[in-house]
Queue: 2 jobs
Job 1
Amino acid sequence: MCCWDRGCAAGVISTLVHELSIACDLVEAVAEAAQRAGARRVTKVHLKLGVLSGVEADALLFCYDIAAQGTLLEGSQLEVVMMPVVILCPHCGVPRELPSIQDFRCPVCGTPSHQLQQGREIEIDGIEIESEDEPTDVIHANGRQEKP
Ligand SMILES: [Zn+2]
């Protein structure tokens, strides 16, 4: 939180408010799914975060712990997987992963494209829970449950 020293606390706070509201939505959605699955508590949440989602992973992790307090998610771990930007190249006709978000051009042929295929998502990829009768359960985003 080096920003405090540089007198731009307002920027830090507005960033945190943004991430806190996302963290609250996330915790709420996961708690609901966990409850439906009969969870005693949630141990881990896997989240896909697009690099263009506007969410800072560090700030989100910080807010997650706050938002999780007093819920089934308290003490659980949030694992964030950053998703790179993928555009659809109109020339090649296939999705291409961008090495940098500074340049929206196909890395193969150089054609500019703004047809975003991936990179803005804030998506729960799966959650791990402890239920009354079973020690651990994994719930996937598609609703499938499996034993580890
Ligand atoms: Zn191309």
Job 2
Amino acid sequence: MIKAFRQFSPNARSKLTHGSKTSILWIVLLQARRFTLGKMAGHDACLAEFSEMVRDIMAKNCANISHVEVPTELLHPTVKRNRGLDTSVESSGRAPTDPGEPEQKKQKGSMEHPYSTELAEFFKGSLRDAGNPKLGAIAIYCGITKEQLLPDFAKQDCRQFLVMGTCMFGKGCKFHHRTANKTQIETIKDKFKRFKTDPLGMKGEKK
Ligand SMILES: [Zn+2]
């Protein structure tokens, strides 16, 4: 039967109606059920509808394939994909990837960008030693303003989150919370060198 279908031109395959395909699968199911019952030999091993169907497929006469016992729900196109009996190459190949793709995309879209672990490591001890100063204060301590810290900084991104990993607005922040890229990490490390090597000096200056 599969071999007979392979003889079909792509055009002929595309012309197979939902009704014929459903009927074919239904008949295959009936035949499989019969085999399951152990009726595999003898002149009545194959159901009349099965033999007839195979003959029709080989004769490329699929429009005639129908079976009065096919449940009406199955003939409705919306139930088509839920049958799980379709043995045709097209649907078995597509089924596992199709539903997965949009889900993955959704997950990526809603996923929060994490704070750079490298920056977290860089600030960890120094922030505590300096008494948790604000970003602007650290910048000034290092001889710059926080605006001067990242020259290639995008306006729509949240500077506070990118550099410090914390933002008082959290998810409600109107700016994008992005992870610092390599260049930004290097720039921050370089410009905040004084803060890193002498965080206590910052505390001293304050007092
Ligand atoms: Zn923010």
